[in-house]
């Protein structure tokens, strides 16, 4: 199932000890003038055998926020002077999920309807790079920041972690051509991030069928929250963010 995710981001990030609050809707991200500020590749795959299923999902995103959507909140003690009231934050990330699911129960409804509930568990791997540009006033002592043309740049470098996760999924078939999927999981538990959760719901509707493949359109919504922290002082990196928005995709069933 290749799909597109149009996300908003709400929360805060800390890069090299500097914290920026972010409240960027999809319109704020799309309005940015910086090239490639919203780019993503997403896809999901599932294989089933009886009650058991293997579920995977891969997300790559490059996005950012600036203007009123990104505001500097704190300055590292080694930075003297004042900061202008603006910041620009850019993220590049890969989120890879893998889980094994087991069908707990299934029951028939009226007509052709059918409902099943799955328990699943696995892991979610994160890779991130973040850059925060802070608008500077004159006469600053900048510590370890890179200073150029009135701005200071803080870069996180590569940051990776792995979260265990456990969740439930509901699958409901209205008709042979239309079905609903609702899923939610929690993870992290201090093993990778402090805590994370995900909620996703979508509808598939079949629009074409060949001898071996049923093609369906997918429309839904996905929300993913994570609170990750690493390092201290000038090396402190934190990503406390909710990413959420509509998803639109294409499902092929063999």
Strand count, sense and barrel status of the largest sheet are: 10 strands, antiparallel, barrel
Average pLDDT: 85
What is the strand arrangement across the widest sheet?
1-4-5-7-8-11-12-13-14-15
Radius of gyration: 21 Å
Report the portion of residues in β strands.
over 45%
Structural class: mainly beta
Uncertain parts: none
Number of strand elements: 15
Helix content: under 10%
| Number of continuous helical runs | 1
Molecular shape: elongated
N-to-C span: 12 Å
Helix and strand sequence: EEEHEEEEEEEEEEEE
What features would you describe in this structure?
- The protein has 254 residues and is mostly beta strands.
- 2% of the residues lie in helices and 72% in strands.
- It has 1 helix and 15 strands; from the N terminus they run βββαββββββββββββ.
- Strands 1-4-5-7-8-11-12-13-14-15 form a 10-stranded antiparallel β-barrel.
- Strand 2 and strand 3 form a beta hairpin.
- The protein is elongated.
- The termini are close together.
């Amino acid at each position: 199932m290749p799909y597109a995710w149009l996300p908003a981001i709400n929360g805060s990030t800390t890069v090299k000890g500097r914290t920026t609050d972010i409240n960027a809707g999809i319109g704020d991200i799309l309005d940015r003038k910086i090239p490639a500020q919203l780019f993503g590749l997403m896809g999901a795959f599932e294989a089933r055998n009886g009650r058991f299923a293997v579920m995977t999902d891969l997300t790559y995103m490059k996005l950012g926020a600036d203007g009123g959507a990104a505001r500097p909140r704190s300055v590292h003690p080694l930075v003297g002077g004042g900061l202008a009231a603006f910041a620009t934050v850019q993220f590049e990330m890969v989120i890879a999920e893998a889980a094994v699911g087991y069908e707990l129960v299934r029951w028939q409804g009226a007509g052709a309807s059918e409902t099943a509930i799955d328990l699943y568990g696995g892991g979610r791997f994160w890779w991130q790079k973040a850059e925060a540009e802070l608008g500077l006033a004159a006469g600053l002592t900048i510590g370890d920041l890179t200073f150029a043309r009135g701005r200071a740049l803080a870069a996180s470098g590569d940051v990776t972690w792995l979260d265990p996760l456990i969740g439930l999924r509901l699958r409901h078939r209205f008709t042979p051509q239309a079905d609903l999927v609702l899923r939610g999981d929690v993870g992290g538990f201090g093993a990778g991030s402090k805590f994370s959760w995900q909620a996703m719901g979508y509808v598939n509707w079949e629009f074409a069928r060949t001898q071996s493949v049923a093609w369906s359109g997918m429309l839904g919504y996905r929300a993913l929250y994570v609170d990750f922290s690493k390092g201290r002082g000038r090396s402190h990196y934190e990503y406390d963010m909710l990413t959420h928005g509509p998803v639109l995709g294409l499902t092929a069933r063999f």
